[in-house]
Amino acid sequence: MPKERNKADSYREKAPIKREKRVMHSSTLPSVRCLDHLYDEDKIFHLRGAIAYSIMGLKHKLMMKFMHSKLARMPKEELNAESKIILETYGKKVDYVDFNTLQPIVNSLFISLF
Predict the structure, then answer these.
(1) pTM score above 0.85
(2) Were 96 and a residue from 22, 41, 48, 57 both cysteine, which residue would form a disulfide, CB within 3.0 to 4.6 Å?
(3) Each residue of 62-79: pLDDT tens digit?
């Protein structure tokens, strides 16, 4: 038994959905425009973490494999300290967490509260 069709169904078939392409340039994004003054006003902290290849997703494993193979082809003289560490620890679980590095953040928060 054929399904009954209503006017809305026939309209959807005839009228394709038009989607606008919106291109946002970095100069028009407010979040990008205001970054310059953030570097002057705010402090930026860098905290090292841990890496465990056994729990990584496929995308991140592939990314690290690509990075490792690219670094392995480079001459040893051109490698910086971080690149050498990546080569040495590839495929292993490594933990660089240091809770002492939180002290400058705590100090900064404490000062900003008062």
Answers:
(1) no
(2) 48
(3) 999 999 999 999 999 999
